[in-house]
Amino acid sequence: MPGFRRLFRLPRDRRREVDVELRSHLEMKAAELQGAGLGPDAAEREAHRSFGDVDSIRRQCHGIQAELSTAGRRIAFFDALAQDIRFALRGLRKSPGFSALAIVTLALGIGANAAIFSVVNGLMLRPLPGIAAPHRLVDIIQGRERDDFVSVSYPIFEHLRNNSETLSDIAAFDVASIAIGGEGVPDVYFGLQVTGNYFSVIGAVPEAGRFFAPEESWYPRVEDAVVISDDLWERRYGRDHDVLGKTLLINGYPATLIGVAPRGFGGHVAAAKIDVYVPLGLPAPELHRDNLQRPRDSVLEVLGRLADGATAASATAEVQALANGFIRAEEGPEASYPLRVVLNGAIPGPVRDGAAAFFLILTVVVGLLLVITCVNVANMLLAKATQRSREVAVRLSMGASRGRLVRQLLTESLLLASLAAAAGGLLAVWISRLLMALQPPVLPFPGMRLELDFSPDARVLAYVVTVTGITTLAFGLVPALRATRPDLVAALKDAGAGGVSPGSRLRSVLVAGQMATTIVLLIGAGLFLQAIRSAQTIDTGFDAANVHVGTFDLGLNGYSQAAASRFFDDLVERAALLDGVEAASVAGKMPLAGASGSPMYVDGHVRPDGGEEFSLHYQSVSADYFRALRIPLHSGRTFADRDDAGAPTVAIVNQTLAERFWPGEPAAGKSFSLGQGQPVEVIGVVADARYHGLVEPTPYFAYFSHRQRPHNDMVLHLRVEPEAAMAPIWEGVVSIAGDLDPAVPMLAAAPLTEALEIFSFPQRLAAWITGVIGLFGLILGAIGTYGVTAYSVSRRSREIGVRIALGACLTDVRGMMLRQGLRAPAAGMLIGLGLAAGLTRFLGAFLVDVSPLDATTFATVVLLLGAVAVIATLAPARRAARVDPVVTLRSE
Amino acid sequence: MHGTADAMTAKRENIIPGTLNVLILKALSWGPLHGYAISKWIRRTTEEELRVEEGVLYPALHRLERDRLLESEWGINDTGRRAKFYSLTDRGRRMLDAEVARWKRSSEAVSRVVNAREA
Fold this sequence. Notes:
The structure holds 2 protein chains of 2 kinds.
Chain A (H helix, E strand, L loop, with lengths): L1 H7 L5 H22 L4 H12 L2 H41 L1 H30 L11 E8 L2 E3 L2 E2 H10 L3 E14 L6 E8 L3 H5 L5 E2 L15 E4 L1 H8 L9 E4 L2 E8 L11 E2 L2 E4 L9 H5 L4 E9 L5 H20 L7 E5 L5 H39 L1 H9 L4 H36 L11 E2 L7 H26 L2 H8 L9 H34 L10 E7 L7 H15 L5 E7 L8 E6 L12 E8 L3 H5 L3 E4 L13 E5 H7 L9 E4 L4 E8 L13 E6 L7 E8 L5 H15 L5 E6 H4 L1 H38 L2 H9 L4 H12 L1 H17 L15 H28 L2 H7 L1
Parallel strand pairs in A: 5-11, 7-9, 18-23, 20-22
Antiparallel strand pairs in A: 1-2, 1-12, 1-13, 3-12, 4-5, 4-12, 6-9, 7-11, 8-9, 10-14, 15-24, 15-25, 16-24, 17-18, 17-21, 19-22, 20-23, 21-22
Helix pairs in contact in A: 1-13, 2-3, 2-4, 4-13, 5-11, 5-13, 5-14, 6-10, 11-14, 11-16, 11-22, 12-15, 13-14, 16-22, 16-25, 16-26, 17-20, 22-26, 23-26, 23-27, 24-26, 25-26
Chain B lengths: L1 H6 L11 H9 L5 E2 H11 L11 H10 L3 E7 L5 E7 L1 H25 L5
Antiparallel strand pairs in B: 1-3, 2-3
């Protein structure tokens, strides 16, 4: 086939072509002369005579062709390409409306994909700066599948560090808000307390100065030293080298600034940038003895580097065995300490799976959007191919090869897609800028700095190019093949004569596919939006209105836990007396911000699988916590003065826990135990609340008195009178704190409602994104469904004309068009509903209080798209019916 | 470009040098034609005033194709024979416009000279 040879650029036999061409000339001439009456021999002679010297001319031509076939061939390829592009440009210019619509449509599809990919790239794919061989870094986390605590205790960490062979080294750290300052109000930054080897595990090289010397800076012998980020060095000290070696006040204690972290390095977690690093145990290691010595007190996160040849799985097996060996020596042969080693990623371990699932869903959603886009444009091209059929037929009859024509039409598609990709790329850059600028109003850690970098890089570019190529083939190939199919050209001559043109089945498939994809997309978006609406009205179990929170962290001020509990007792007692304050309390964490976890044992209770260990989540609060947050006390009492450090440990449990273990009997007076510790007596039961974000199922939860389980860092909760002015109240609190210890800063203060926004932030972000994508999808889906359906119907206008001419009434025709025209959309709708019903299950984790099969969402989408299909079927039928049948018939 | 046009100057009798190229380009300005149809067109439109030995046409066509003023494709003529159809490229079309303009200018100049009435 000459066409394919042309397409794939096989060398042609140019000498033979010359011979054929010349012979063809002579034959035509002779034939003409014979027609004029000459005999065959005479005609041939005359043809040769008037031609001239055939051999000499053949030789000249061979010479020229030889030039053409060597240097010329390469030129010819680019020439043909340039010609294709010129042709394509001319084609686009010829129908600017079509071109603009196709480009805008594709730009939306490609842009949405590029934007989502930029986010995935920025959060999950792009390696963080300053880390050596990031794929060998691992997190060691405590817990079984689905019930992880990030933290590990110091004794376990130390045991692993001394004994592990699968990990070349491990470091421990804890996040903290750190105040730097001399006189006046100190500045608060987000920081890490780290073991001395943190930077060597990361593999970072200092930008200036040095890092902690591990041997000098290992608990309990730490040096009073501090390392800051390059960013902070720039912001606070203007990259002044003289500041190295100076003494800074870190939470009121002097420490020497010894070094600056690598440029761009902000810790090993994406987004949340670390500005200050201090040795674990600074400044007074003996004061940290309490929390660093108990093997069950999980207070540290652990980061390791795999040894050569080790994998996360082999490391898991080893550290698990080591930890169990250690804890059994401490607690007895039954004890266990579950550990897992997972590859570190820029997204912190506990939320990584959720984030990955979320982005997977988003990727699928924008992928669907792109499919709809391609179907739209493919259909537009098909319709255009019909208009262009004459041009194509002419070119084919002129001897243009099909391959060449296909190439030309694909060039046109590629040009469309490239222009759209450029526009889509700009759209993506704009969207990612918007997303980068999104900052939750109050972050969970005072001083925390969120930096999201979604800016496109080479990976994004490669992605866009790939997507564009695939898109081009997806929307361009079928129409190009179809437009150049010889039998189609013949059929096009009487296109529209009957209902069954060769394209009609393809168009039915397009209609159905369009409908199915749009339904899946819109149902997904609809469910998300429903979930977000219900998240706003979700019952958290507490009342955040008129509650304000202020954060204190005494850890770096060298408070012992007993001293900390005295400080917080005094703070609460005096803050409650301030004007406008109705109730004051401290708690280890804000509501929804999570809690500590521990295994729990209850006498006489085993898990369904036979184990005796239950997971308890808990936090420490002061007595008025339930009054401040209006969490109803169902039975028993709250903490009293007598429940102090020396008294038996007591707890107030949530309803879920009480009903699970002591159904139908008063829980007060019952007891449970944590690990090997002494029994804990239940003194009261409170209503359930949300503890870990808005989505988690309710855990077994207990509140301890902060006097019995003290914390260095606590959050002051103040319930104030409605309309109370907060400024004087906070001034009062700061002056009380200054009274108790001038070196203790209040790190942050905010209304609780604002502070909680961070927990609905992912949902709001998701709502925003799905809302926009859903809107795109609705527009594109409606246009596409309308376009495809209306086009199919309008192709039958002649038939409608005939029927009307033969006396059919408009109602009959309309009924017929509806019956037949809606067949494909209806089929697509059914397929789409089936797919949606199957797929939405995977959204379950994100759908708070919304069924994946939510009837309202399904019904709304079906009605909406059904209406579009009916309108799309009826409008052209009406138009066709209104036209004078004679005109319709003649127009063909 | 002009070099080739001069080089292919018809070697015979009354064809004006360089004319053949313009004639070919002009012949193709209405659409693709094969070689024989081009020669017929030239014969007909010049009313045989400009006689071209038919074979000379082919080296000229191939040079124009080499210089990318023309492109060609194989097809079937009206009597069912395989024939090579030539058509103008954009470049060929621009060349034709330029040549026609040049022709008009120079022939006007020549006719002014020829018709001059005073010394």
